[in-house]
Design goal:
Blueprint (H helix, E strand, L loop, with lengths): L4 E4 L8 E7 L3 H6 L2 E3 L12 E9 L2 E11 L10 E7 L2 H13 L3 E2 L4 H8 L5 H12 L3 H11 L2 H25 L10 H29 L2 E7 L5 H9 L17 E7 L2 E7 L9 H14 L4 E7 L6 H9 L5 E6 L9 H7 L2 E4 L8 H11 L15 H22 L4 H19 L5 H9 L6
Parallel strand pairs: 1-7, 8-10, 8-11, 11-12, 12-13
Antiparallel strand pairs: 1-2, 2-6, 3-4, 4-5, 5-6, 9-10
The structure holds the ligand Nc1nc2c(c(=O)[nH]1)N(C=O)[C@@H](CNc1ccc(C(=O)N[C@@H](CCC(=O)O)C(=O)O)cc1)CN2, guanosine-5'-triphosphate and potassium ion.
Guanosine-5'-triphosphate (GTP) binds next to helix 8.
InterPro entries: G_TrmE, GTP-bd, GTP-bd_TrmE_N, GTPase_MnmE, MnmE_dom2, MnmE_helical, P-loop_NTPase, Small_GTP-bd
EC number: 3.6.-.-
Keywords: Cytoplasm, GTP-binding, Hydrolase, Magnesium, Metal-binding, Nucleotide-binding, Potassium, tRNA processing
């Protein structure tokens, strides 16, 4: 019998109400010691998914009025008996109620222990548990939507599909090999190729969801670069919707890197506005220019800004060259002014070109579209599953490689035994992802990232 655990599940701070969650075999008897329901109704006698109003009493003293929600195993978040006590929000009262629950026999929950129990009791798999963290930490609608899809099994379903396919293939192969005297239909090469190709397609799809998922969740490390005075700071302010960078008509206004996080359509950009790129004798400005050049070579997205109203110079050309090294959008700014720029040259060098007036906002929608395209948003379909972290990506990658090994073994005519070994490796990697076969260490690491009460 495992301990009955308790923790404050709402944020620490003053609010309307706070919730103390209690989970475990003795949740009802523990809470009945301190919760006095109206008409002396005992929590232990209540049906699951019902509520009672009452008082929290400790050492004969009334602490607060509260509502108790009862969940009966297995129908609860953790799969165990659960009581949720909602008391008046307030740090002092809430801690007092938690103390009373602990005095009555519960033990303090570890970080993520409720969700860990949900996992151990088979309510959710590891991908779904990890999605819980993503839901809590989501900073945009699309990040929240993606996390919710995963919580509802989008990744688990894909993995199950591949797993079942590979399991039946491996079973068929070994039955056929092990019981030659039985009347088992021979596995045809077509069937094998078919199950490998289907598996590869699904796993490939999951892998490619990862980068888009990261763009939605963590954001893309984005550098705004260009000659002095092209309008980089104005662009930054346009995207962030506030005056973040200093805009003046003096070239060389921005000298250090200014950072901000903005949501562009469905994508989060972690923007850095950099010093205008030019050769300079000013010592401080030169440091800024060097930093800008360094940053734009390692970013996830380069917004290379050009001035529609000025002709190309050597600094522009140097920037165009760097554009080949990272994902890049060329932004031709100040389209409200007369054309001086050789835009044909830029179009010939950089694939994604957007015409903009950062000052008026004209062209902003096209820029949003270009950013979403680069982040792969048109193929981003969270209901098809999004791998949410490196652990998941690695497991899928390992599985994918093993399926490819199996296919390769078939192509070069290795024995069915050799093929089966690769299929089994592929399955093992998937079981690690879902947590069906994984070490305590991995499970602990997953739940280590949770807050107490979740
Ligand atoms: N009060 C409260 N609100 C909450 C939660 C909670 O634990 N308590 N949640 C916590 O994250 C989220 C909702 N997630 C939940 C997930 C499963 C179950 C649950 O009771 N599942 C049972 C019963 C399902 C059924 O009746 O069909 C089960 O899966 O067996 C409850 C909440 C957000 N809101
Ligand atoms: N007409 C017009 N002027 C613009 C536009 N965008 C920016 N400007 C003006 O161009 C000047 C320079 O803008 P900034 O945003 O400071 O340019 P910057 O590239 O950050 O400049 P540095 O800090 O020198 O690198 C300011 O006077 C802006 O108002 C635009 O789309 N149209
Ligand atoms: K400027």
């Amino acid at each position: 019998m495992s301990d009955t655990i308790a923790a404050i599940s709402t944020a620490q701070g003053e609010g309307g109400i706070s919730v103390i969650r209690i989970s475990g075999d003795s949740a009802f008897t523990v809470c009945d010691k301190i919760f006095k329901g109206i008409n002396n109704k005992k929590l232990a006698d209540m049906k699951g998914y019902t509520a009672s109003f009452g008082k929290i009493v400790s050492d004969g003293e009334e602490i607060d009025e509260a509502v108790a929600l009862v969940f009966r195993e297995p129908l609860s978040y953790t799969g165990e008996n659960v009581v949720e006590l909602s008391c008046h929000g307030g740090i002092y009262i809430t801690k007092l109620v938690l103390r009373a629950v602990l005095d009555a026999g519960a033990v303090p929950a570890q970080a993520g222990e409720f969700t860990k129990r949900a996992f151990l009791n088979g309510k959710i798999d590891l991908s779904e548990a990890e999605a819980v963290i993503d839901i809590i930490s989501a900073k945009s609608r699309s990040a929240a939507r993606a996390a919710l899809c995963v919580k509802e099994g989008a990744v688990r379903n894909k993995i199950d599909e591949v797993k079942n396919l590979l399991l039946s293939t491996a079973a068929h192969l070994s039955a056929w090999a092990d019981y030659p005297e039985e009347d088992i239909a021979e596995v045809t090469d077509e069937q094998l190729y078919d199950s490998f190709d289907v598996s590869i397609a699904i796993l490939d799809g999951l892998i490619s969801s990862y980068d888009s998922g990261q763009a939605v969740k963590q954001g893309i490390d984005t550098v705004i670069a260009g000659r002095p005075n092209v309008g980089k700071s104005t662009l930054m302010n346009l995207l962030s919707g506030c005056e973040r960078s200093i805009v003046t008509d003096i070239p060389g206004t921005t000298r250090d890197i200014i950072e901000d996080t903005v949501i562009v359509g469905d994508v989060i950009l972690r923007l850095s506005d950099t010093a205008g790129l030019r050769t300079t004798d000013d010592k401080v400005e030169k440091i800024g220019v060097d930093r800008a050049k360094h940053r734009l070579k390692q970013c996830g997205l380069l917004l290379a800004v050009f001035d529609y109203n000025r002709s190309l110079d050597d600094d522009d050309k140097e920037l165009i060259e760097s554009a080949g090294e990272v994902p890049c959008i060329a932004i031709i700014n100040k389209t409200d002014l007369d054309k001086q720029l050789d835009t044909e040259y830029i179009e010939s060098k950089i694939k994604n070109v957007v015409y903009l007036s950062a000052k008026s906002g004209e062209g902003r929608a096209e820029l949003v579209k270009a950013v979403e395209d680069i982040a792969g948003m048109d193929n981003f379909n969270p209901s098809e599953g999004v791998l949410s972290n490196e652990r998941q990506r690695q497991a899928v990658l390992n599985s994918l490689n093993s399926v490819k090994d199996a296919k390769n073994a078939l192509e070069i005519g290795l024995t069915y035994d050799a093929i089966t070994v690769s299929i089994e490796e592929a399955i093992t990697s998937l079981l690690e992802l879902t947590g069906e076969r994984t070490s305590d260490e991995v499970v602990d690491r997953v739940f280590h990232n949770f807050c107490v009460g979740k």
